[in-house]
Amino acid sequence: MILLRRLLGDVLRRQRQRQGRTLREVSSSARVSLGYLSEVERGQKEASSELLSAICDALDVPMSEVMREVSDDLALAELAESAAVESAAAPMRPLLGAVPSVPSGPDERVTIKAPKAPTEAVDVVAA
């Protein structure tokens, strides 16, 4: 499952590290406790919009840029998750091809052929 708070935390951490700043510097500038900012960056706490705004201001990065990066990361995570589901279903694909089609309307009919009759007679004895 993809957690938005983890993606947001990853983006905030990358933004901070790109600037070569420490958690202590950003937490002080944003007026957020160091421990709380650390938990937000690790995806353990949900950041409120007010907190996110304070962190973005401290990083001098527009919130729209942070959210765009989160959106891009989310799209990539969804693709990766989708690919994982498809690869897990791959062994089943040959079976799916063997399923006969179902009629799509009332005018279509399905013909079911009975198995061929046995070539040898079989005696059935009642007990």
Determine the strand fraction and express it as a percent band.
under 5%
The CATH class of the domain at 4-88 turns out to be Mainly Alpha
Largest sheet: none
What class do helices, strands and sheet pairing give?
mainly alpha
Residue stretches low in confidence (pLDDT < 50, at least 5 long) are 95-100
Fill in the CATH topology of the domain at 4-88. 434 Repressor (Amino-terminal Domain)
CATH architecture group name of the domain at 4-88: Orthogonal Bundle
GO molecular function, one term: DNA binding
Protein name: Helix-turn-helix domain-containing protein
Domain HTH cro/C1-type: 12-66
InterPro entries: Cro/C1-type_HTH, Lambda_DNA-bd_dom_sf
